[in-house]
Every structure is written in C-alpha cells, then in structure tokens.
Write a structure and sequence with these properties.
By secondary structure, the chain is an all-alpha fold. The chain contains 4 helices and no strands. Helix 2 crosses helix 4.
C-alpha cells in the first residue's frame, strides 16, 4: 500500500495568510472563509464561539491560521450558531 502525499494546508496556498489572495481557487475559498469567520467572531472569544457551535475551539483556531480545511459539518455548525453565511462560492 502506497502512502498518500499530504495535501497542502490553506495557508500554504497563500503567500501571506490570510492577507494575500491565493492563486488556487480552493485555497482562496478557504482564505475568504477564514476572513469571514474572523469578522463574524468579532469581539467574542474563540472559546465562546466554539461552545455555542458545539465544536472544538482548536478546530476554529486551525481554520483561522489556515492550518486545516473546514469540513461541511464545521461550516454548517459555525454558520448556524453565528447566524451568518461564512462560505460563498
């Protein structure tokens, strides 16, 4: 069995995460999601948002740093608890 090569994180696809756009369309979607999430969090703590969404705060921190890809479950829970659309195509 051959081992799969690890895929790049969203931050690896942007020269200055999250400030510089990504030339990769999927990386750019992840970057915009992270920026939208940061704006929606506002003055609240990540811990507070994570608790309200029912997800691990580490997951949110990794998304904001571009270290992981948000999955559909996470996107749905965050959008529902923050009552805003975070992902757009």
């Amino acid at each position: 069995m051959t081992r799969k090569e690890a895929r790049a994180t969203p931050a690896m696809l942007s020269s200055q995460w999250p400030d510089a756009p990504s030339t990769d369309p999927v990386g750019e979607a992840a970057r915009r999601f992270a920026l939208n999430l940061k704006q929606a969090i506002g003055a609240r703590s990540v811990r507070e948002v994570a608790r309200a969404a029912g997800i691990d705060e580490g997951t949110i921190r990794k998304i904001l740093r571009g270290e992981s890809w948000p999955d559909l479950r996470t996107i749905w829970k965050l959008e529902s608890s923050l009552e805003t659309q975070l992902y757009s195509r």
